[in-house]
Amino acid sequence: MVFASPKGSTSPRSTPAEPATVMEFLAELPSELSGAIFAHLPNSDLKKLRLASRRFSKIVTPHHAFKRVSISASEHNIQVFRNIANHETFRHDVREIVWDDARFTVSLEEESGYHGGYGYDAEDSYSEDTPVPDGVPLWFASGCRENVDYLRKWRGRDFETLPQHVETAQQLAAQLPLDVAYDYYQELVWQQEEVLTTTANNTAFEWALTEKWFPNL
């Protein structure tokens, strides 16, 4: 049985469905408006948005600019450098190439400045209640401890909920056991030596300049 609506009555208006999340709301904005918003965001935030979803990756990528690229004795860094050089959008924004000559040290015990500059002492670097795992040199354990102490003191009297301190707390909570960290460090040192032996960093640098992959340097 069908009942007709009383004469003069109106059916309730249907309201448009609202985006379920802020992310969906941003994704559905006109490109002119979303572009105006993304223009105020740093690259670090744009990178996170790109990784949020494939849809966001397509929307955000045109606004993710690389003004500076670096190259170092790292296989991963060299691959990133080449990927940016081969990207038709990113490569045109690059204005500067930074040559990073920082190196992982095989043994800080060989660095005379470490003893005085960092307060390293093989006798008292670690107390008995914090033993160093077998195979881990004392200079590495001491350096890790100093890094952790620095992160803990860095917050000072700031609120713990500030974004930079939340990130620090996450780093402290996710720190690796010393023996695992040292194994990873040795892998990085090995990769560094491979790059230096093959001069892969020099080759990538010369390739980028010779082929003019960054026309706006």
What does this structure look like?
InterPro entries: F-box-like_dom_sf, F-box_dom. This is F-box domain-containing protein. Residues 23-69 form the F-box domain. α3 (43-50) runs antiparallel to α4 (54-60) and α5 runs parallel beside α10 (200-210). The protein has 217 residues and is mainly alpha-helical. Strands 1-2 form a two-stranded parallel ribbon. Helices cover 49% and strands 4% of the residues. The protein has 10 helices and 2 strands; from the N terminus they run ααααβαβααααα. Mean pLDDT is 79; it is low at 111-128. The chain folds into 2 domains: 22-103 and 199-211, no CATH class; 108-117 and 131-196, no CATH class. The longest helix is centred in the last third of the chain and has 21 residues, at 178-198.
Range of strand content: under 5%
Which of globular, elongated, flat, extended, rod-shaped describes the shape? flat
Structural class: mainly alpha
Measure the end-to-end span.
76 Å
Tell me roughly what share of residues is in helical segments.
40-55%
Largest sheet: 2 strands, parallel
Low-confidence stretches: 111-128
Q: Could you tell me the radius of gyration in angstroms?
A: 27 Å
Whole-number total of structural domains: 2
Total strands: the figure is 2
Q: Helices and strands, in N-to-C order?
A: HHHHEHEHHHHH
Protein name: F-box domain-containing protein
Domain F-box: 23-69
Pfam families: F-box-like
InterPro entries: F-box-like_dom_sf (IPR036047), F-box_dom (IPR001810)
